[in-house]
Design goal:
Layout lengths: L1 H25 L11 E15 L11 E15 L3 E16 L5 E15 L6 E10 L4 E3 L6 E4 L5 E14 L2 E13 L4 H4 L5 E16 L4 E12 L2 E16 L4 E11 L8 E13 L2
Antiparallel strand pairs: 1-2, 1-14, 2-3, 3-4, 4-5, 5-8, 6-7, 8-9, 9-10, 10-11, 11-12, 12-13, 13-14
Length: 285
């Protein structure tokens, strides 16, 4: 049974790699323009809100509302001998249906920094660091009363890596290296740290970033993160975040986000999250 689950997981990873490779071949490869050195900055904020209200509505229904805010930031410095890329993602949102209390619909803080040496090789060496946590407490609503299962920096995840990066085109790049991953927790050590408040794992990481323009107003952004422990190469942690953005007007965007997550320490089954939203998008920088 365990071998079948591992085979399905490896098949899924292979499928994800094929999808990204397909996008790479489908995208028209253009000649690279002269590089622009110095800082390249981008900060984009998205805000979406939905609301339903019913009064003597014979077909039934419950009052509801939901909102979500996302801020995506990128600061990249390019020089002839190095590239320093910094990115951040902040997401938070809530939803309320009927008389239930408002519940979280999104809650994420993720920061990443990658420093690459430009040696004009087919691949270039890099070092990276990543941190991830959430803003507020999270609950399990399947219990009565609800049970708190997470909070700010409980858990918190940190990953440091060193290896080589391959960038065949401006819209896609992949890196592979040795990695060290830390899980920090306090009240929920049994749930996230296997009983330890600070757990360190050593292994290998693979990260693939794609930013592909599929049409005049359609953008596909993907980040596939794989991590395998040294003592358990048959188990791979997967975090695959996909975002399709349709630019309806100058300030109105329609977004479709699909996130697949697998970590056997948290669940023996894969986790899947899907969000379809329409909202206001504004370039802050």
């Amino acid at each position: 049974m365990r071998e079948k689950k591992q085979l399905r997981m490896l098949s899924l990873i292979l499928f994800m790699q094929i999808v990204i490779s397909g996008i790479l071949h489908a995208q028209e490869i253009e000649k690279k323009a002269e590089p622009q050195y110095g800082w390249q900055k981008s900060v984009v904020g998205n805000l979406g809100f939905t609301q339903n209200a019913f009064d003597n509505w014979t077909q039934g229904g419950e009052n509801s509302w939901s909102w979500q805010m996302d801020i995506l930031a990128k600061f990249t410095k390019k020089e002839p001998t190095y590239e320093w890329a910094n990115s951040g993602k902040i997401s938070y949102g809530k939803a309320k249906i009927g008389k239930e209390d408002p519940r979280k619909a999104a809650d994420e803080i993720k920061l990443e920094s990658v420093y690459s040496y430009i040696l004009n090789w087919p691949v270039n060496p890099y070092v990276s660091a990543m941190a991830q946590t959430q803003f507020t407490n999270g609950y399990d609503y399947t219990t009565l009363p609800k049970t708190e299962i997470s909070n700010f920096m409980d858990p918190g995840y940190f990953t440091e890596a060193i290896g080589f990066k391959y960038a065949p085109a401006d819209f896609i790049q992949s890196r592979l290296g040795a990695a060290c991953k830390q899980t920090v927790t306090d009240k929920y050590a049994e749930r996230y740290g296997r009983g330890d408040k600070f757990r360190t794992e050593y292994g290998a990481e693979s990260v693939t970033d794609a930013n592909v323009k599929l049409g005049q107003n359609l953008l596909y952004t993907s980040k596939l993160e794989l991590f395998s422990k040294l003592n358990r190469f048959d188990e791979v942690d997967v975090n695959w975040d996909n975002l399709f953005t349709v630019k309806a007007t100058k300030y109105i965007n329609v977004t479709w986000n699909i996130r697949l997550y697998y970590d056997k320490d948290m669940s023996v089954q894969r986790q899947l999250k899907e969000t379809l939203a329409i909202g206001v998008s504004y370039s802050l920088l």
